């Protein structure tokens, strides 16, 4: 530390060193080394990055709370509140009793992300901790444990290193994890690379010298280095492109390092004049850096015997920043502590707030960290980096969660497009919004960013809860009507106590999802109101239909796919434990399968409007008959949701049509018009 910070508090670092050695005592690592060698190695990695003394002390102490009897309070007392906070952030919650590995991993990640949002140095220590653990992973005897740690590294820690621009850490973690997850592929690729290195007769060196000579002839002194591609990145390309090792043309990469950014563009011009370029392979990350701050020019040229050569051109400063990312900005000499408020971290924290369970948190966090990027612009020219494959809805949520929630349409480059439209590099995106709009459950089928998925799921969960409470309240009111006497407010309080429930909403949800039967609710409200010997349901039955007006299909109830009920049909609901109420037309043949469910008499409510009906239409096999059928639908203001040919023989074509109609009377008028047409042989409702 003294080499870059002569004023470092040597006493503080010595105390931390001695404390760590004493607390870890005779503990051994899987390699047989004393345990305290690990925190010392991690602290060494932090000094390589020239980090401040608080970070070095945190690295020395980072495992004491997790693996010894030390407490956070003890650390605070001896080393101060800041160091205690950093150590607590790095400490894993390995002692929590989670049901699954995923839940435990999610809880660790949850705490870690929160600490990281407060101070990014937590992440730097954690990455160094994971890197050293990966370097010694081969000493662990259990293959299952090695694979689990390698998976976690590949899915979470390598992407985190990439997101803060620490490519050196990312590459080494990926390589080590790859060697444990795909040992055969690792051995094959490294073997091939070694064979190329031995048999290329110094080819990499020759190409590097020819590039250097070309630059010097153009009046530019630059340093050129060549290397084989990373084995993991070669394997990933082979997987993505479905090609063999021999078919890969770009397994070598060269790096040109200049004094400043102006010389980077000069170098690019010289190389492009001397050799042909490969179209579509040029990227300018200097004028538009990656979200993690990465800057470089990327190009591919055809060198010598039509060999593809990939070249990265960057300045000395860019190279340092690209290898160590945010850590390079926070080297001790540059002063000022890290703020941890990078935009992508804020996105992760928002996902954290919205996630319902462990699976969802892990899925959305990986989505947020582990994807290629594209660049899109707002109408005012602000640049947003998005994962490749992002839609206009993803873009809206990237701008602001409220804008995503209220999106009703979008314009891309001035043209109206559907919300599911995928964006490409350079698109200018304008989101059209409405205060009355709400996120749609269907958006989950096409959004790809973790932030958008988390926000939509959160809204759908809240709406689902509200609607289940509403349907449960309607059922509750109907159950109360069947009690032998009137009840007061005290009865509800007593019932909640008997059922061990917190509040009325919890009771309504239990009724709406049939976690409680009508009988149990009646007995809780008025003990003795139900005959105990009753297997034949000798208590009063439901005597009035429950209205489903105002509820959203697919949220608190589902319209049955077998009979496609529409407003005006006589309907009945099947209520099974833990499921939405399933709504059927009263004459549906599938109702006979509902013997395990409570039957609920339902009604559409006054002026309920709109549902999807399914029709079977047989057309004569003649030109223009399909157009005539579509014309009848259009004339009656009915929207086609789906059209599928189910059968085709010489004289007839049979179609299945899902049609959006107002009510059963609207549907009957359409059926009558279809049957009256000469183009149509038969029309029936399914």
UniProtKB/TrEMBL annotation:
It comes from Parasphingorhabdus litoris. It is an enzyme of class 2 (transferase). Belongs to the relA/spoT family. This is GTP pyrophosphokinase rsh. Gene3D superfamilies: 3.10.20.30, 3.30.70.260, Beta Polymerase, domain 2 (3.30.460.10), Hypothetical protein af1432 (1.10.3210.10). NCBIfam families: spoT_relA. It holds the Pfam family RelA_AH_RIS. Residues 35-134 form the HD domain. It comes from the Bacteria. It catalyses: GTP + ATP = guanosine 3'-diphosphate 5'-triphosphate + AMP. Residues 614-686 form the ACT domain. In eubacteria ppGpp (guanosine 3'-diphosphate 5'-diphosphate) is a mediator of the stringent response that coordinates a variety of cellular activities in response to changes in nutritional abundance. Its EC number is 2.7.6.5. The lineage of its organism: Bacteria, Pseudomonadati, Pseudomonadota, Alphaproteobacteria, Sphingomonadales. Residues 368-433 form the TGS domain.
């Amino acid at each position: 530390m003294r080499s870059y910070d002569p004023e470092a508090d040597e006493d503080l670092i010595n105390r931390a060193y001695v404390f760590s050695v004493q607390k870890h005592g005779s503990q051994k690592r899987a390699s047989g080394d004393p345990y305290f060698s690990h925190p010392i190695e991690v602290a060494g990695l932090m000094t390589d990055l020239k980090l401040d003394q608080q970070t070095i002390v945190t690295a020395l102490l980072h495992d004491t709370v997790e693996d010894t009897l030390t407490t956070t309070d003890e650390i605070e007392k001896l080393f101060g509140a800041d160091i205690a906070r950093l150590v607590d952030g790095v400490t894993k919650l390995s002692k929590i009793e989670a049901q699954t590995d995923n839940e435990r991993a999610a809880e660790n990640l949850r705490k870690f992300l929160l600490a990281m949002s407060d101070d990014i140095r937590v992440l730097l220590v954690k990455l160094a901790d994971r890197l050293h653990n990966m370097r010694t992973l081969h000493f662990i005897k259990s293959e299952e444990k090695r694979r689990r740690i390698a998976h976690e590294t590949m899915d979470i820690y390598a992407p985190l290193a990439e997101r803060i621009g620490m490519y050196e850490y990312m590459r080494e973690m990926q390589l080590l994890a790859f060697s444990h997850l795909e040992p055969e592929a690792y051995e094959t690729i490294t073997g091939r690379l070694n064979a190329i290195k031995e048999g290329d007769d110094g080819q990499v060196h020759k190409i590097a010298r020819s590039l250097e000579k070309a630059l010097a002839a153009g009046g530019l002194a630059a340093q050129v280095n060549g290397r084989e591609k990373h084995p993991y990145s070669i394997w990933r390309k082979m997987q993505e492109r479905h090609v063999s090792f021999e078919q890969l043309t770009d397994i070598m990469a060269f790096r040109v390092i200049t004094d400043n950014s102006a010389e980077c563009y000069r170098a690019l011009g010289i190389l492009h004049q001397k050799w042909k370029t490969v179209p579509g392979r040029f990227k300018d990350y200097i004028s538009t850096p990656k979200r993690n701050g990465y800057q470089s020019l990327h190009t591919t040229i055809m060198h010598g015997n039509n060999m593809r050569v990939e070249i990265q051109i960057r300045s000395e400063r860019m190279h340092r920043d690209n290898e160590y990312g945010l850590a390079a900005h926070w080297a001790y000499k540059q002063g000022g502590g890290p703020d941890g408020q990078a935009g992508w971290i804020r996105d992760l924290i928002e996902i954290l707030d919205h996630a319902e369970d462990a699976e969802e948190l892990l899925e959305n966090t990986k989505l947020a960290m582990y994807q290629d990027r594209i660049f899109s612009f707002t109408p005012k020219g602000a640049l947003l980096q998005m994962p490749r494959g992002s839609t206009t809805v993803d873009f809206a949520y990237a701008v602001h969660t409220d804008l995503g929630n209220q999106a009703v349409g979008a314009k891309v480059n001035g043209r109206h497009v559907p919300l599911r439209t995928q964006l490409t590099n350079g698109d200018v995106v304008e989101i059209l919004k409405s205060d009355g709009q709400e996120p749609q459950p269907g958006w989950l089928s096409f959004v790809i960013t973790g932030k958008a998925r988390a926000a939509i799921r959160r809204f759908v969960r809240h709406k689902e809860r509200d609607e289940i409470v509403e349907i449960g309240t309607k059922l509750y009111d109907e159950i109360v009507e069947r009690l032998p006497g009137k009840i007061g407010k005290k009865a509800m309080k007593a019932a909640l106590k008997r059922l061990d429930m917190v509040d009325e909403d919890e009771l309504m949800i239990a009724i709406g999802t049939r976690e409680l039967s009508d009988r149990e609710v009646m007995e809780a409200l008025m003990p003795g109101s139900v005959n105990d010997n009753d297997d034949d349901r000798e208590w009063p039955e439901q005597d009035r239909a429950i209205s489903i007006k105002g509820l959203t299909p697919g949220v608190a109830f589902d319209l049955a796919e077998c009979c496609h009920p529409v407003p005006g049909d006589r309907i009945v609901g099947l209520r099974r434990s833990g499921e939405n109420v399933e709504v059927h037309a009263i004459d549906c043949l599938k109702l006979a399968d509902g013997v395990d469910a409570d039957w609920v008499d339902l009604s559409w409510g006054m002026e309920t409007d709109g549902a999807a009906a399914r029709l079977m239409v047989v057309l004569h096999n003649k030109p223009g008959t399909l157009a005539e059928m579509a014309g009848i639908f259009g004339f009656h203001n009915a929207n086609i949701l789906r059209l599928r040919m189910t059968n085709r023989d010489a004289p007839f074509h049979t179609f299945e049509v899902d049609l959006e109609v107002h009510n059963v009377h609207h549907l009957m008028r359409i059926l009558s018009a279809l049957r009256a047409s000469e183009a149509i042989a038969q029309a029936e409702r399914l």
